[in-house]
Amino acid sequence: MPPRPPDRPVAQMEAARTFFGPLGFAMEPVGALWHLLKVAQLAQTDLDRILADQGISYADFQLLGALMMADPEPLRPSDIAPRLNVSIAVLSVRCRKLAAKGLIERQSGHADRRSAPVRLTQEGARLVHVCAAMLEQRGQFLQHYGQIAKQDRAVVDRVLRDLHARLDRDFQPVTRPDV
Q: Is residue 176 one of the residues assigned to a domain?
């Protein structure tokens, strides 16, 4: 498949402005939101592609990373789910899959396996390091982000950090059943 023209996102946003602008939509925030969501979608697709070589998804990697940051303390699924913005049911399926691969372990002695604390295994910790290196080496987002001028990266980081903090204060975590 031939590469897409570099101005495609600009052309898409201009088409949206032409259509939605006359309808009274405030296009400035819509444009920023659209670009932010599209970049996130493209980055996640790229991360999933890279991590597939190790037999995990980016969502799996997020769970393994959350457990690595908590190490050595195990975490209960009810504590992990809001951090990852997923339901307990989705997290339970993911935990079962990762436990079967030997990447995490559930603490025994709990009547309800869904509430049993989980922790990263040594193999899980090793995989997190391997995957992090792969993402750093092969991630398209990181490659393109590194091509942006350092002062512009600092502005992007500051603006996104500020927006993230504002949204984090205003919204309670909502679980997404489809993730």
A: no
Q: Please list the pLDDT of the chain residue by residue as tens digits (179 residues).
A: 667 666 787 788 888 888 888 888 877 788 888 889 999 999 999 999 999 999 999 999 999 999 999 877 899 988 899 888 888 889 999 999 999 999 999 887 666 666 789 999 999 999 999 999 999 999 999 999 999 999 999 999 999 999 989 888 887 655 555 54
Number of structural domains (the chain) is 1
Radius of gyration of the chain (CA): 20
Segments forming the whole domain that contains residue 91: 56-133
The reply to whether 139 falls in a domain is no
* CATH number of the structural domain spanning residue 71: 1.10.10.10
- Classify each residue of 20-57 as buried b or exposed e, where b means 16 or more C-beta atoms within 10 Å of its C-beta: eeeeeeeeeeebeeeeeeeeeeebeebbeebbeeeebb
For residue 4, being part of any structural domain is answered with: no
